[in-house]
Fold these 2 entries.
Entry 1:
Amino acid sequence: MDSAWTAFDSETQTMLQTAMNDPKRVDMDKLSNAIVEQSLKDLAFCKDAGRLCYTVVQAEARKAASSVFRRKLLNRLQQEFTARVEIRNRSVEEWVCVVTFICSVFDYIKVNDAPVVALVDPIYDCLFRLAQPDALMNEEEVDCLVLQLHRVGEQLEQANSQRMNQLFYLLRDGFLLQQDLGSMTRLLLLEILEFRASGWTLTETAHKYYYSEVAD
Amino acid sequence: MSEQQRYSYENDCKPDENRNKGSSRWSQCRKRGADGSLRKAEEDPGREQRCSRRPESFTTPESEGPVSRVKSWGDEVEAEEMRSDVRRDMHRYRRRILAVDVPQRDRKISSGSSDSRDSRDSKDSPGKGDIETDETVLVRRQKQINYGKNTLAYDRYIKEVPKPMREQGVHPKTPNKFKKYSRRSWDQQIKLWRVKLHAWDPPAGDLQQIEEIDLGEIMDFELDVECSADPDSQCASANTASLSLTEDSFTGTPKKMMKMEDAEMS
């Protein structure tokens, strides 16, 4: 979690520290906004941000028996999600960060050990957008799409298998029919198709194909 | 849409309007509406169901098309948490009552008895089929319990009187949300429980400024309306500045200090 800490300015770091020990004293509005704002700028941060958020959520639950931070965080995320079209038009990098962050939150924050159902459809909406022909032309969007499916695909499928099926129709179509895709994109799509087909894992041979260095 | 259906939607969660049409919770006991017309038997089977059948989208003159009824993620996750907490409580409760030995008693327990008091008889008797399992009801009851437990009085009470020392009838006891009660009976139990808890209110003249507000109606409001946006009850526990309310509807003498549990009524 070191990278997560250092991403923040000292004021936010102090807030985080306090949130772990004495949550009642922290302005959760400020803290949640600071975290989301940082995430919109920093893709590397986003990937693990969910874990940081969850530790704050748990600390607040244990020490203050409240869930203000979780509520503020999710509502702020919802704002970003609602504005996703504008965000993507403004900056694809920011859009990709939004998706990554929401999925990271979904991955880590659980409600009585169950995933947050409220996030399932929004995440699907994002993934569907990423699977559109124009998005498949951008390597960063394809990258984001396959990464999220690796991390939370299985959970998403359990929550709503019908939408996952629909998503994969799109992915198959994109892979087969879209002429102008880069080879990297095709590789990523093929891998995720195989990954899901093997039950959200890769067989040993498939793993060797995709992930080991070519011998000669 | 049929008259009946349209009427149902319009009367969702507004018990203070159209009382004569029988949308309030009391009307299910009445055979006729106030206008004299016979009410059909199945008209008010479960207000909770009507509330949850609110249309997902609606079109207003200003909107360009259907506008979805968007819930905030914060609220949704809290609702999920309440439901899963209540389900977990239910499993625990079931295990607990199945483990209890039922001693034979000479007295007959009348089947129609509604017990506002938690007598030892009724504690032993609920079989598997006799507990409340409707999640909507359980969640509503849990919210009402949470309002009560979120008070300074309750905090002081549980510190002062540990469970083994509590005497039946003397000390307030949290109503058991898993027992089958009518809506009226339950709401009354909650009121009585809340009143009893006031005996542990912090003494008057405490640090905070005391304002007297008659919020008896709001007390009823929070018990009546099922589908209102969930008030920020987390805020209340952290909120040490308390306003005092008088609950004239419950006791003759107004009490000086009560904690206001709804910091925001949104």
Entry 2:
Amino acid sequence: VTPHLSHSGGTGALAQWVLVELQGEVEPRQSRELAGSLLGDLHYTCEGVPVLIVGHHILYGKVVQLEKPFAVLVKQGGVPQPSPAGPHSHYTVTALIKTKLLFKTRPKPIITHVPKKV
Amino acid sequence: AAMRSRAEVDATLQTAKLNPAELLPAVHCLSFGPQAGGGECCLLQLEPGLCAELEAGRSLVIRGEKDERAVLCSKNKTYDMKIADTSNMLLFVPGCKTPEELNADPASCNIIHSQIAGFAKNYWELRRCRPKLKKLRKLLMEDPYEGPDTRKDQTSTFSKYTTEDLLSLIQASEVEILHQLQVIDACKIEGCWRILDFDYEMKLLNHVTQLIDSESWPFSKVPLCVCLEELGSLEPREMIEHILLSYGRKYVDDAGEVFFEMREDKICRAIAQMLLQNAVKFNLSEFEEVWQQSVPEGMTTRLDQLQGLALVDKSSRPETIFLLKVEDLPEDNQERFNSLFGIREKWTEVDITPYIQDLCAEKQTVGALLTKYARSSMLNGVKVYNSRRPIS
């Protein structure tokens, strides 16, 4: 098995993506399927600090330039090719990630205003 | 899912008691893309240099059959692959801008709807490793080339290997494979890589050394064209040239003629192998005498020419010598040491070095290997190494 990590576009620059690192699990609300559901709003302060609002939480993070960048590999559904080594399985390098937004601080819960009882 | 509007974003900010004045105007509304949960994406952490290779448009290849642990190869390096777990969730977001990028582009949209392409709790980690080249010799030894006269080659049903075949079967980079083919004196015959059968190789070498002797050429100046003329009727010209390339250093003189400077050490070593392979072991002094007589006149034999090929037993009376080829030993570090300590209980550093030198990783020393895999002690005032574990 000799999966090839070939560049997806062939020519042109590889896409640059960003990694968002969160603590714990990400679970969809109301146990709906993850695909298509909202995660939250990502803001940056004027100083460049990333702020992520997820559900009832505010997460403060920092922008980190990765010492070791990542390549994002996407599996290509088996492309059968005859070869002495057997069928090939292809992975494509879809993007590079050189930056991550690291949210390590404890989420601050958003306390919604509770109307006073008269 | 419906896309969030600016009004909704602002409302959330208000609820969160964040002051919009302290924030950059652009917001990323993150949602999970349609493929996000599919597990089709994974992350590969890149060692220095690999990122630049990918950006330059070069490919990386994962190699390994079902019974082998996968390695990743660039054009010239090989890496072990290992899964690293992280307790955190890693989301990969295309089109997500950093503060610098937002500030640099004042026209950037107020709302950026970003779809998370995938997520992972682990990633592939790489560690540079020695290329796994033992298999290369093993494949080529399935069918060594015995010369054009044998019927064997015409009717052979053995696999023959092209460069492409080797690239898909050997867990090493292309540059490392091609280099190793040169090291083991492989040659291409009809498009496939072959190793010469040892007896045939010695036959070819003998033709050349006899010719050198009869022509009284100095070993440093053996002319290619005369060799081809004189020996061309005995053996294929490609084979004559191949043996000269294997046992000599090619150069061109001022007149543009091709010569070879014969490699005395390599020739003596090959002849020693020829002698040693005929018995389990030899009386050392008898062997040294026969060996010196067997090499071309004018060449001098020395025991240090046999490093990694033969081992002298100084404890036996009389002293003996036997064939022990490093390429026949296991490739894995621990297995190599087990094998060596099975052959001999205690080794001096001088004796063991030729048999572990090839195990050294980039910047690793023999000393470091010995510290890790062996235990030292003193024997008759000499430092020796033995196994860390009891020999079964």
